[in-house]
Amino acid sequence: MQYREYGNSSKPLMMFIHGGGVGGWMWDEQVQHFSNYHCIVPELLSISPFSIERCAHKLLQLIEEKANGKTVIVIGFSLGAQIAIQMLSIKPNVSDFTMINSALVIPSPTMIGLMQPLIRLTFPLVKNKTFAKLQAKTLSIDDHYFERYYHESSTMHIEVLLQILQENMSFSIPPNFHKAQGKILITVGDQEKSVMKKSAKALLQQHPNCYGVIVGNVGHGVSLAKPAFFNDFVEHWIKDGQLPKGMVM
Question: Domains in the chain and their CATH numbers?
């Protein structure tokens, strides 16, 4: 698996797992802020054929190689959050802190059935910049990152996109998730789709020791939409367990 390392290799390990449709670059603001940690940012599309379970096993192996007994913090967004859930289900003690941002865990058989013909029909639109800008907006991708996002999305092979969407839309909470150890935080934006909020609640119901936070005035992608807020939020949660007031689920 391809990955990048940042920060101080003698400090606690922080792994940032990106979402679908974006790359490790989505965490640029985080690795700059957490320069006093040993940050690892994998590139999920370096796994082929793609699957959430294969990625989870690869990342578990990477943590085992790099952690060396250090505190481990795993932060996943969207597809990356699903992978983090899978990692905890395979190895419950993999991390001391796990933040699961906007994880879909409620499959929709109807949407899964419609997905392949719909994607094949609309796939040429990914090369259309107007369409790409609309898609980027839903992920809170600003002008600074748009060209990178557009290049990656417009050069992605349709079969890879279908693999990712199939995995993402069919993902459900693994049977062993309730055994996960460490501190686990579930977050969702208050402007996200109802299925995302239901997914957050389902995760909380499956694991009695999880905490949940609804992030105000944000949709899908709080770390991109509000990087300074997100960084402070993560830092306070890790250091003293502090959560923003009025936002706990």
Answer: 3-107+172-248 (3.40.50.1820)
